[in-house]
């Protein structure tokens, strides 16, 4: 270089070559690319595992149908006392119980049929408060209504029995019919509709 400026001495400023900068840039880009690939691969692995769980959950949900409301069975309305005919039999050694009990049942609205001593097969053989007998169809009807008047009595149905009448056989433990208020409350509860499940649940 000519002119008035001359370089003297054996030292001079040295500049970094442009090629080294280019290499650094290439290395930086490569590192970023590698990190990006690793991150993407990690995300893919996570998706694979979590995706399998979701698929299983979806499959389970498909296999498990939504709970469906079950049709409520038609409630059987019990008859009123005036629709129930009761035969009253005394199976004890105490006289007059059958007639006295029949009169009380009549006051409470029941229809009274036969009033007599108990047949030999039951006479002096009932240790409890009493025994209620009726046809099979009366189990949830007239027999249940009569049962509200004497809660401690045993109930039995006879499959071969015909007709709609029911029997009240007074036993040795008989102390009287239920109090009118208690009997009325039992009748009200019997006539109340029973709750039914709104939906049918299924565990999956």
Question: What are the secondary-structure elements, in order, as H or E?
Answer: HEHEEHEEH
Strand tally: 5
Characterize the largest beta sheet: strand count, sense, and whether it forms a barrel.
Answer: 5 strands, mixed
- Secondary structural class: alpha/beta
Domain LytR/CpsA/Psr regulator C-terminal: 83-174
Keywords: Membrane, Transmembrane, Transmembrane helix
Protein name: LytR C-terminal domain-containing protein
Transmembrane segments: 24-43
Task: Report on this structure.
With 204 residues, this protein is an alpha/beta fold. Helices cover 37% and strands 14% of the residues. It has helices spanning 18-63, 97-107, 142-147, 180-191, and strands at residues 85-90, 111-117, 130-135, 154-158, 166-170. The protein has a five-stranded mixed sheet with strand order 2-1-5-3-4. The chain is rod-shaped and about 125 Å long. The protein starts with 17 loop residues before the first helix and ends in a 13-residue tail after the last helix. The chain crosses the membrane at residues 24-43.
State the gist of this model.
This protein is an alpha/beta fold. Helix content is 37%, strand content 14%.
Helix-strand layout with pairing:
Layout: H1 18-63, E1 85-90, H2 97-107, E2 111-117, E3 130-135, H3 142-147, E4 154-158, E5 166-170, H4 180-191
Parallel strand pairs: 1-2, 1-5, 3-4
Antiparallel strand pairs: 3-5
